[in-house]
Write a structure and sequence with these properties.
23% of the residues lie in helices and 31% in strands. It is elongated. The model has no long low-confidence stretch (mean pLDDT 93).
Length: 172
């Protein structure tokens, strides 16, 4: 299984003076209030969106180890504008992963085998089956590729994928 994106968010517990964003070096931020009300801070790994309220989101990370590193870099970059000691570290909100079950998946048979309220499959609209489980969501393609989303930790994502794979093998 490969992690494709991790999203974490937190709070600086102070307002961010957006009028002072130009004090940051040009390559560090993007802010265009005509397009969006948040500012973007470019990090060496991932990006951060920051709001005037002090809320922030860090995303585009490929491992859990990068969350803390990116957070520290984010604080360093915006420290001329805020008091970093007031900030709370981010919490992981979503992990997105991709797996290849390496089997052809008969999507119509899978729809019949899974509970209908947990499945969406409209092949005219989208070529994959959407399966909403208790722990997260999976996009399942007939090629055997699966995208997993909505997880807060790797263990629950791996357990979900393992259970899903077992259900699919019973159908295939």
């Amino acid at each position: 299984m490969k992690i494709t994106n991790i999203v974490a968010s937190g709070d600086l517990h102070q307002p961010v003076p957006f009028e002072r964003l130009p004090e940051l070096p040009d390559t560090n931020y993007r802010y265009n209030p005509e397009n969006y009300h948040g500012g973007y801070i470019l990090l060496s790994r991932g990006k951060a969106t920051i709001y005037r309220s002090g809320k922030y989101i860090i995303y585009g990370l490929a491992s859990l180890d990068e969350v803390d590193t990116s957070y520290r870099e984010f604080l360093t970059r915006i420290s001329p504008l805020i008091d970093p000691s007031l900030a709370s570290p981010p919490e992981v909100r979503n992990i997105v992963g991709m797996d290849d079950f390496q089997i052809e998946i008969p999507l119509l048979q899978l729809v019949a085998a899974l509970r209908m309220e947990q499945v969406e499959y409209e092949p005219e609209q989208f070529p994959g089956l959407i399966y909403r489980g208790d722990a997260g969501t999976a996009l399942i393609f007939s090629s055997g590729k699966v995208i997993l989303a909505g997880f807060k930790d790797l263990d629950s994502m791996e357990a979900f994928a393992s259970g899903l794979k077992a259900k699919i093998k019973n159908v295939a």
